[in-house]
Structure formats: structure tokens, C-alpha cells
Amino acid sequence: MAILTYHHIAPCPPSDQDHTGLWVSPQTFEAQLRWLREHHFVGYQVSELASLLVQGRAPQQPWVAITFDDGWYDNYTTALPLLVKYGLKATVFVTVGRLRKGQPTDDPSEMMSPTEIRELADKDIEIGSHTLTHPKLTRLDNEQALREIAGAREMLREILGQPPSTFSYPYGAFSSRVENLVREAGYIAAVSTIRDNRVRPDQLFHLPRVMVMGNTSLRRFAYMFSALYHWVHVWKNRKRWSGAA
User: Fold this and answer.
1) 90-94 and 8-9: which strand pairing?
2) Residue-wise DSSP of 187-205
3) Fewer CB near the terminus (10 Å): N or C of the chain?
4) Which CATH architecture has domain 2-240?
5) Which letter does DSSP use for residue 213 in this model?
């Protein structure tokens, strides 16, 4: 039971060795999806999970909400076919102002295009918002932050024909003030970088997630769904996030 965070599903290129943790190989990702299916996990979009929380209805089966931040092209070329193969839903949080305008190249750090995120949506992948330009929202005043939050929602509405209902804070930077702006913009839920594998209704605008890294072994991946992981991070979060929300 966890909301998982991914970024790239591709080998880490030599040009980005400082961020190797953000690159999960296709083989590792597929092994993790296979493990989820073998253990009878049900996949949820973040909006579906949020609706269950509001209704006070906990999923009866083991569940997972797979999320991707930023909107990288490999989410379309590599992650999507594997998600379809294993019958798992996901949510992709798109930095909409950085979407690719032309044809793809050989750049491994390329973003998706509007056409490609529409194709994701057609395959039961939820498209969420990750702002216009990926700033730290806590460093912006209300007007600037709302432009990023509400502006991204409107731009995605134009691309998809309907506005996104979920949001992801760039860099995990949020506060009560920023949460209120996200709520005012019309979103129903937002995900954070708080570490935990349990979610509660009072966390609806800072839902915790579990970060899957490039070196996450299958044994550690299984541990990320355990009660032990939850209690370890309950203890850690008391200090780490005591004033964030």
C-alpha cells in the first residue's frame, strides 16, 4: 500500500551522473511491476485514491498508486507499454510549460509532447499538474504561485479537453499557504515528498509517497510496502516535516 514516485524509466546517461537515483532501468521497472501483479496489487490513479479517502472507503485489496514527476519522454516510450502489459494504472504529473514542441531527438532528457500526453490519457493514465515551469512554490508570492498552479491547470485543460484534478509540488516544496492556493485553483488532491506508505484523509493536499530510486532492489521494493517502513518513517517525519504542513 503506497504511492510510488518515479521520474525516468531509462538507463542513466553519462551526462546526468549526478542524478542517477532518478533513472530506473526498464528491466528494474518491469521486475517491480511483475512483483506487484504477482502479489495481487490493484493500481489506482491518484484522483481515484483521493476520492476513496474523502468517502472514508479504504481499498480492500493491496493497492499501489504509481506516479511519475515532470513528464519525461521515456514515460511515454518505455513506462507506458509496461504499465499496459501488467494492467496497472498510473498518474503522470506534467510540467506543462516544458512540454516538447517539435519531433523527438536522441536527447535522453527530452519531455513529452501534448500529443503524447493525450495518448497517455487515452490509455487510462491520469495526467496531473506539476506547474508551468517547476519552481519552488514556497519561494513565490501568492500571485506568482497561483500563476504556476492555476496556469498549468488551464493549459492542461486546453490540451486534454478537461482540467487535471491532482497536483504534485515541484521539489516537494509546500506549506499551508501553498496548499490553500492549490485547493483554490480547483484541484482535489496533491502529492508531496513526505515519505510514508500509508495515507490519511487529513493528508489530502500533501499525500506522502515512496521514492523508487535507480538502485532500489526488489527486496527493498517489497520492504517499501511493509508496516515496518511505515513506522520507521512515522518516527523520521516527526522531525523532518513537523512544520511543513
Assistant:
1) unpaired
2) -SEEEEEEE-S---GGGTT
3) C
4) Alpha-Beta Barrel (3.20)
5) P
